[in-house]
Amino acid sequence: MALVANGIGRSFRRVEVLRGVDLAVEPGEFVTIGGPSGSGKSALLSILCGFDRPDVGSVLIRDEELDGAPSWQRCAVLPQALGLAGELTLAENTALPLLLTGSPEARSRSVAVLAELGIGDLADRYPNEVSYGQQQRAALARAIVVEPAVLLADEPTAHVDHASAEVVLTVLRRVADRGTAVIAATHDPRVHAVADRRLRLDKGRLVA
Ligand SMILES: Nc1ncnc2c1ncn2[C@@H]1O[C@H](COP(=O)(O)OP(=O)(O)OP(=O)(O)O)[C@@H](O)[C@H]1O
Ligand SMILES: [Mg+2]
């Protein structure tokens, strides 16, 4: 399995948001997580990528238990709040994970991934010089540039127009088909439609 979560529980201010979440995702599988606003989708993704620790339960990525945030190659994230560095261009933001691995072709690979997402011409702009939907695609580019074992995408189509959403969906599907386990939290039926398996958070548990 690419990712296994066992019995994840998490409370905030004594409110039990997650209560026994179990999940196992294979390499190349595309899973969506639905559920109403506030049901805990982002909270769960934060735990799956090691940004937050569960009160109970464990997460394994490629059979190794998480103890803090794993490397970007093991688990890359498209956060709901994007988190692009404003001091860096889109190409530089996208290249960051590659620079950390010492990849010599960081720039060319970054621009190629941005182009795959339809924003290659914006590679040398700064985040505040492009739209929020374009920033979202750059944050997705940064997540997939290293071909991670697991990709966690929080609302990947939330800010993009119809045509760009189609591009994002095609790219997410392609990333899964190349072997990455893709887990996307979404309200968007178009994302659910391209997934292999659709789950939803209901009363703190994942159900089919
Ligand atoms: N760090 C935190 N501190 C306190 N409460 C939190 C924290 N993180 C999440 N929560 C609470 O947990 C619940 C779930 O939030 P979460 O952001 O996971 O929802 P969501 O399903 O992602 O919603 P949306 O669809 O709006 O993105 C909410 O009630 C939220 O207020
Ligand atoms: Mg959320």
UniProtKB/TrEMBL annotation:
**Which Pfam family is one of this chain's hits?**
ABC_tran
Annotated ABC transporter domain residues: 3-207
**SUPFAM superfamilies with a match to the protein in the record:** P-loop containing nucleoside triphosphate hydrolases
Keywords annotated in UniProt: ATP-binding, Nucleotide-binding
- Entry GO terms, CC: plasma membrane
Record-linked Gene3D superfamilies: P-loop containing nucleotide triphosphate hydrolases (3.40.50.300)
Does tRNA-binding show up as a keyword for this record? no
Identify the domain of life.
Bacteria
Gene Ontology terms, MF aspect: ATP binding; ATP hydrolysis activity; transmembrane transporter activity
Q: What is this protein called?
A: Putative ABC transport system ATP-binding protein
Recorded source organism is Kutzneria buriramensis
